[in-house]
Structure of Acetoin utilization deacetylase AcuC-like enzyme:
Amino acid sequence: MLKIAWSAEYAHPLPQGHRFPMLKYELLPEQLLYEGTVSQENFFQPQPLPEERILRVHDARYWQRLRHLELTLSEIRKTGFPLSAELVDREVRIMGGTVEAAVFALEFGVAMNIAGGTHHAFTDRGEGFCLLNDIGLAAQYLLDEQKAQQVLVVDLDVHQGNGTAQMFEHEPRVFTFSMHGGNNYPLHKETSDLDVPLPDGIEDAGYLQLLRYHLPRLLEQVEPDFVFFQSGVDVLATDKLGKLGLTHAGCKERDRLVLELCHQNRVPVCASMGGGYSTRIADIVEAHANTFRLAQQIFF
């Protein structure tokens, strides 16, 4: 069964000017239920991740300052959101969602989080709408609990997974692969185990050719026993922040490639949704919904 982490807390309301990015967390599960892709049985309410798990990858001083709302104005600006206790609580629940989804993926082959993909969170700071790093936390959990020995992070958000790269730069059991806009945020890139910077405006054919070249080779060379998939849909040509040229069909084919390769190689995969900033909310929801539709078709 496809298990999906979702909580009403994901759609936590923000002050005017920040609400639009949160709408997809309400609309996406509604769309999936309406069209019959999933039922209520597929969703699970994640628990907040315990502090001791957060401290496995995040700096204790940073976590305490975040939890007590003591970040500086400059640090808050870099996260992109007004800081509040509700926002931190939301983030901690999202972290729990990806960790729990990873455990479900071990059982069912695939599991997903409606939110997550917070790959700009470093060990000691937040950036780019990310306060804590769900992929990093979940990967470390699997390693700590000996549920995985070699993790592959497949980060296909338009922005480099800089926080995840920094977090695991000295951890050979986590291989970080980021295929992202070379001229996009962040200005200063970290060094992933494999970075594939893309030119502005790249379209479906060129993008998919690169992915078809790199991903099968990584599965063969890295030999992961678990994959985390950051499936941001800000690769779309309609995205306000993306600078790439993918169509909905191209983005869907991207997801198909990742999920089919994991299924064929019998590697469990946990997907987090990542970014999406198209002007029309329908474009964002439709692209994300394709990821869930494909997971159902391929694995079940």
